[in-house]
Structures are given as structure tokens and as C-alpha cells.
Amino acid sequence: MAKYHLNLAHLYGNLLNTYSDVGNIIVLRYYAKQMDADIAVQVISISQEFDPAKFDLALFGGGQDYEQFVVSKDLPNKRTEIKQFIDDQKPLLAICGGYQLLGQYYIGANGEKIPGLNILPHYTLSQDHNRFIGNITIKNEQTGDEYHGFENHNGMTFLGDGERPLGKVISGHGNNGQDKTEGAIYKEVYCSYFHGPILTRNGEIAKHLLLAALHKKYPNEDFSNQEQLIIKPTF
Ligand code: GLN
């Protein structure tokens, strides 16, 4: 029996799971175990209620334009609750399509405007007959950590006020192929175009998300031992 218990909401996990973004949950559990924590997972999808008070962290994965369009129709029903979760400084990992949908809007590959939650200020345009596909390396300029991954997206995302990039592009395309930014950080929301899933190769992000969730849920506990956990991915 683990000492700490976390509840994770997998937002639209049955629809948005491109390139196995669900693997991020396996990685979170792997590191959580080393922190004496377990994670219960619940998929929250179309027409299902999302109660932010019941969850300690969340995952919002990527998808194809069609699924994103389906999800966008349901988002207004959950906007207040998702915003509450984010404003409460609870950690949320958003990948590709989920990242796009947290922002103002996404212009799909066929030119259709897919409205987002408009909680984060970024917006996403479409490229003409092109996708950004391939390996990517970025550097988190706050921590100095390098992150490695694989990107595959049509969308070109432009960040807005109050969010900073997850990292600076060292090689690859990143948010838009123009400004050398990749992903976004806003409060405890971590966004990225990395699939594959991102946390397998970038355990430091998993560790950060878990510690943010643990500190929030157990404010009187001392997690300094867990903070010293050395991240050694074995995947
Ligand atoms: N459909 C979106 C795009 O192409 C997101 C893709 C994804 O999640 N991989 O930009």
C-alpha cells in the first residue's frame, strides 16, 4: 500500500491518444512508485462531468483533426471546471491536439476553425500541405534540462502573454518553425508537441508534475527525499 494517493483525470482519453500519449500515465506511475505514491486514473470524456476537486493531476492528449473537432463541441461544458483546475495550480500535461485545444483556436488542415477552451492565450494556424515531422531537441532555459522527442503536427502554434515556452528549439521545428519555441508552460500546465510519449525520455518533467501534485495535495508533508530522486529512465 503506497503512502500517497493521486487521482489523475485523462481528459477525452478514449478520443485523444495519438501515438500512445497514454504511455505518459505508465511513466507517471513508474516514478510515483519511487515516491511511495500510487495513481488512480479516470477517463473523462464527452458528456461526463469533470469535478476538479476530485483530481490531483490531468493528461490531455493529442489527436487527429476529426477527433479534435468532436472534442471541441464538448469543451464549453467543461471550461469552468478545467479553468478551475488550472487556476488551482494543479499539474496538467497537454500534448499536441490537447495543447492546441487549451488555446484560443486551431485552424485544421482543411481550413476549418476549431474553437479551443481559450484558457491559455496561444492560437494555432494551419500549414499548407505540410506537417512538422521528426526528432526534436529543446532546452528548458529555466532549468537547463534538454528534452528529446518526436513531433508530428500540422498546426503552427503561437504563444501569448503569460505563457512561456517549454524549451528553446535546438533541432527540429517546435511550435511553429519560426520563433524557436516549443511547447508552453502556464501555471502548472505543461504543453508540448512531443509524442512518443514525452515522459519516457524526459523523466524530469514527470518528476516535476508528480511533485507539484504531491505538494498541492499534502501541503504539510516533507517531500525533500522525493525531490532528490534521480531520474533514470529504464524504458
Ligand atoms: N491534428 C493536430 C495537428 O495536426 C494535432 C496532431 C497531433 O495531436 N499529433 O496539428
Automatic annotation (TrEMBL):
InterPro entries: Class_I_gatase-like, CobQ_GATase1, GATase_3, Lipid_II_synth_GatD
Family: Belongs to the CobB/CobQ family. GatD subfamily.
Pathway(s) served: Cell wall biogenesis; peptidoglycan biosynthesis
This enzyme's EC code(s): 6.3.5.13, 3.5.1.2
Keywords: Cell shape, Cell wall biogenesis/degradation, Glutamine amidotransferase, Hydrolase, Ligase, Peptidoglycan synthesis
Annotated signal sequence range: none
UniProt protein name: Lipid II isoglutaminyl synthase (glutamine-hydrolyzing) subunit GatD
Catalytic activity: L-glutamine + H2O = L-glutamate + NH4(+); beta-D-GlcNAc-(1->4)-Mur2Ac(oyl-L-Ala-gamma-D-Glu-L-Lys-D-Ala-D-Ala)-di-trans,octa-cis-undecaprenyl diphosphate + L-glutamine + ATP + H2O = beta-D-GlcNAc-(1->4)-Mur2Ac(oyl-L-Ala-D-isoglutaminyl-L-Lys-D-Ala-D-Ala)-di-trans,octa-cis-undecaprenyl diphosphate + L-glutamate + ADP + phosphate + H(+)
Gene3D superfamilies attached to this UniProt entry: 3.40.50.880
CobB/CobQ-like glutamine amidotransferase domain sequence ranges: 8-202
